[in-house]
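Replying to the earlier thread about multi-chain prediction with a worked example.

Input:
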Amino acid sequence: MRDRSDMMPLVVSEIVRETPHIVSVRLEAADGGVLPAWEPGAHVDVQLVTRQERQYSLCGDPADTRGYRIAVRNEPFSRGGSHYIHTFLRVGRRVHVRAPRNLFPLGDAPSYLLLAAGIGITPILAMARHLAATGADWRMVYLSRHREDVAFTAELDALGDRVRTHVSGEDGRLDLGAVLSALAPGTDVYACGPQSFADALTGLSDRLPEGSRLHMERFEPKPREHRPNEPFSVVCSRSEVTVEVPAERTMLQALQAEGVDVQGSCLRGICGSCAVPVLGGTPEHRDSLTVDDASMVMYPCVSRSLTPTLVVDA
Ligand code: FES
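Result:
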């Protein structure tokens, strides 16, 4: 868990029940001041009074410089963050928030398909609003199991008929493969939703037309096969220390125990907080962020080494 020294104390200024299971929360500086800027796809790390840290996509308007809006689904089997927010968080309470980071940025493309499932609507809503404002060629499909779970309906209605809501309890299961196959070549797909949705889309990515790319944000770690844990050494070039990583500890734990300044947040390889550039050796990427196994940026909260020694810029 990170300390709070790089976090902003913000105050809950509004809580809105968007659906029976989702609330949106607006956070502002205590003095109403301007907050660090963000772009669609960005998330914030939020540390609650329980010292639990969670990542939430920003779903408000980037032009609103004095408030961040997040939305939280009450997950009965959550690790506690959503339960706390739904049960105890009140207007006026203080939470600590790290400045927005964007691991899911919108790139340039001739056209876009936005796919949201469930609470995955949060980054997708901000993207849709941005694409609509810039005159881009875009469409959006928002999948929900039940009509009552469809959030932000007024805001989506205001975006017009480019937005289609598919309620599987009424409309049946959406054929995602057919949706991807029907895209015009060059259409980039941005998708966010629960693990089953992310896994299904990943399995269908060969249905994308020529020149199209699938960009996804995951809430849960991607299942990845890996070797059994083995010890290895990490040479930290800036700190000028060599850290031994035993089999039973993560690389992040070992680095932090030796005072190397690498911070973690999710500790599950999904938030990007602990990113470390690799200067030598071969990392074993076990995270859900790395798209190219040859990447020389690694996430030591979960990733390890394929070589006896790694050299990192830390
Ligand atoms: S702490 Fe989130 S990716 Fe490592």
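The pocket of FE2/S2 (inorganic) cluster is lined by residues 264-267, 269-274, 287, 299, 301 (CB under 6 Å).

Feel free to reuse this layout for your own posts.
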